[in-house]
Amino acid sequence: MNIAFAGNPNVGKTAIINAIAGSKLKVGNWPGVTVEKKEAEVEFKGKTITLTDLPGVYSLSPYSIEERITRDFIFEQDPDCIVNVIDSTNIERNLYLTLLLMETEKPLIIALNMFDEFKKLGYEIDLEGLSEMLGVKVVPTSAIKREGLQKLMEISISCPKEHKKLDYKLRYDGFLESEIMDVVKKLKQHVINTRYPLRWIAIKLLERDEYAKEKLKKELGMDISKLADENIKRIEERFGDDAETVLAESRYGIINGILKKVFKKTKKDDYTITEK
Ligand code: GDP
Ligand code: K
Ligand code: MG
């Protein structure tokens, strides 16, 4: 079984793996590049589990080597579970990657790490509400205090099984969503068998993601790169911005909507700023 840890830089991915695996952590490089690859093998409940520490990323765009490594690993190594490690003191920014990971439609759980700091800051969050709105299990953890790690492992190993019942139900705003569905419909007429979810392909085409187009051309043996061009045009006419930006902004809109319902900054954060 393979569990991959994905998250922004400095959220505690390595600290969590270290706390779970101790000295078993092996450091190498990703094939062909100098980006560090850390892996550990642990025994848990009679299973041998490989923990992979993916490079820290803010997004899964094709623009940086770290993001391409993460993305390729997810689709090509097909981990049994992705643990998205989040810095709980910076949820809004971190959830952007979460939404992108959800779009891969892989089994996913969230480790809400630095939860010790989160509590110190006096923040409050409705964990069940967050989990329910995302359709993803959420475990608060503190790598430093070694809290929540046992539960994280337990949930990780049942994550592929749980995943079959899950449907990540986040949807973009109505107009964007219907354009995505229209591209999916077109894809269904051309694309029969691929490791990539059709909805993910549709979104990448709308984002003019050249790296995805290349991969798809190789995998499908056919060029679908212009399939979404009309949809892109419609989106850009409507929103007056490039489709990639429109999709990104829509994701932030979704995140804000969720956080309004489940997250509260209290106590130490209740100072007021007076404008002069
Ligand atoms: P990575 O880049 O995601 O691998 O993050 P690291 O594991 O290197 O951790 C980044 C920093 O955050 C280090 O200084 C860790 O000691 C610290 N850190 C990691 N997890 C926690 C946590 O749960 N609580 C606190 N307070 N600090 C943490
Ligand atoms: K680091
Ligand atoms: Mg690290």
UniProtKB/TrEMBL annotation:
<protein>
    <recommendedName>
        <fullName>Ferrous iron transport protein B</fullName>
    </recommendedName>
</protein>
<comment type="function">
    <text>Probable transporter of a GTP-driven Fe(2+) uptake system.</text>
</comment>
<feature type="domain" description="FeoB-type G">
    <location>
        <begin position="1"/>
        <end position="162"/>
    </location>
</feature>
<feature type="binding site">
    <location>
        <begin position="7"/>
        <end position="14"/>
    </location>
    <ligand>
        <name>GTP</name>
    </ligand>
</feature>
<comment type="similarity">
    <text>Belongs to the TRAFAC class TrmE-Era-EngA-EngB-Septin-like GTPase superfamily. FeoB GTPase (TC 9.A.8) family.</text>
</comment>
<feature type="binding site">
    <location>
        <begin position="32"/>
        <end position="36"/>
    </location>
    <ligand>
        <name>GTP</name>
    </ligand>
</feature>
<feature type="binding site">
    <location>
        <position position="22"/>
    </location>
    <ligand>
        <name>Mg(2+) 1</name>
    </ligand>
</feature>
<feature type="binding site">
    <location>
        <begin position="53"/>
        <end position="56"/>
    </location>
    <ligand>
        <name>GTP</name>
    </ligand>
</feature>
<feature type="binding site">
    <location>
        <position position="19"/>
    </location>
    <ligand>
        <name>Mg(2+) 2</name>
    </ligand>
</feature>
<feature type="binding site">
    <location>
        <position position="18"/>
    </location>
    <ligand>
        <name>Mg(2+) 2</name>
    </ligand>
</feature>
<feature type="binding site">
    <location>
        <begin position="113"/>
        <end position="116"/>
    </location>
    <ligand>
        <name>GTP</name>
    </ligand>
</feature>
